[in-house]
Amino acid sequence: VAIKSTDLAVRKYREENGVVPIAKQIDTVAGEWPASTNYLYTTYNADSHDVEFTGDHTMVLGSGVYRIGSSVEFDWCAVGCLRELRNLGMRTIMVNYNPETVSTDYDMCDRLYFEEISFEVVMDIYNLENPDGIILS
């Protein structure tokens, strides 16, 4: 209400003006030596991506935090989905922000974005990755 606009209008304006996030790899070794991981995050504080986007992935959205009524069983749905997609020879992208889940283990998927699960962030990743499809767990 403060700017008399909607989130979609702000998103459109942002994209039209080139204000889009950049995908970076998480440095898991604190710069001790060059690291290449599938752990990713998006940022506006960069000028180039750390990965190339081939578009031949299927994106799976995780369940986020555990809470009453939503727990490990939802993460297990994501894990089962990732495993089956890989068994079918498909490449996978996982989006989840809960590091305590099995779905965020490094060997569960080809790319893992540690990001909040919101419309804005998921659409930003979707636009970057151009996946073949999205599965909600």
TrEMBL record:
It comes from the Eukaryota. InterPro entries: CarbamoylP_synth_lsu_oligo_sf, CPSase_lsu_oligo, CPSase_preATP-grasp, PreATP-grasp_dom_sf. SUPFAM superfamilies: Carbamoyl phosphate synthetase, large subunit connection domain, PreATP-grasp domain. It holds the Pfam family CPSase_L_D1. Residues 1-44 form the Carbamoyl-phosphate synthetase large subunit oligomerisation domain. GO terms for cellular component: cytosol. GO terms for biological process: 'de novo' pyrimidine nucleobase biosynthetic process; citrulline biosynthetic process; glutamine metabolic process; UTP biosynthetic process. Keywords: ATP-binding, Ligase, Nucleotide-binding. One of its GO terms (molecular function) is carbamoyl-phosphate synthase (glutamine-hydrolyzing) activity. This is Carbamoylphosphate synthase domain protein.
